C-alpha cells in the first residue's frame, strides 16, 4: 500500500504490486502499470520497446527465433519434452544456436524438417 498526498491536500491509498521492473497500481477499481528507471536509463527510454508493441507468442508453438538453417531436430511427433530440453539447432552465420524447451509438453507435430532454411518467426514445432 502506498499513501499519496496530491496537491498537498488530497490523500489517497494505492495498492502497489511489483513484478521485475514493472509496478502495478490499483486505486478505486482502476489499474495502471508503470516502470521506474534511474535518470541515466530513462534518457534511453525512447529507444525501448513499448510493452504493447511486443508480440505475444502462443505457448503451443515453437517458432524459430532467428533466420538460418535447421540443422538438427532432437524431437519427433509424440515425444514428451521437459523444460530446458534441447529441441533443435538453427545454424546462422556459421554459429549453431540450440533452442531449448520453455515448457513441459508433448510434441504434436514437426512442421519443418532438418536441412530446410527458416526465417525468424517460422513455426518449427507444434505442442
3D architecture notes:
The protein is mainly beta. It folds into 2 domains: 2-53, no CATH class; 61-126, RNA polymerase II/Efflux pump adaptor protein, barrel-sandwich hybrid domain (OB fold (Dihydrolipoamide Acetyltransferase, E2P), Beta Barrel), CATH 2.40.50. Helix content is 3%, strand content 48%. It is built from 1 helix and 13 strands, in the order ββββαβββββββββ. The strands form 4 sheets. Strands 1-2-3-4 form a 4-stranded antiparallel β-sheet, with no helix packed on it. Strands 9-8-6-12 form a 4-stranded antiparallel β-sheet, with no helix packed on it. Strands 5-13-11 form a 3-stranded antiparallel β-sheet, with no helix packed on it. Strand 1 and strand 2 form a beta hairpin. The chain starts with a strand and ends with a strand. The model has no long low-confidence stretch (mean pLDDT 85).
Topology of helices and strands:
Layout: E1 2-6, E2 10-19, E3 22-27, E4 30-35, H1 39-42, E5 61-63, E6 68-73, E7 80-81, E8 86-92, E9 95-100, E10 105-106, E11 109-110, E12 117-118, E13 123-126
Antiparallel strand pairs: 1-2, 2-3, 3-4, 5-13, 6-8, 6-12, 7-10, 8-9, 11-13
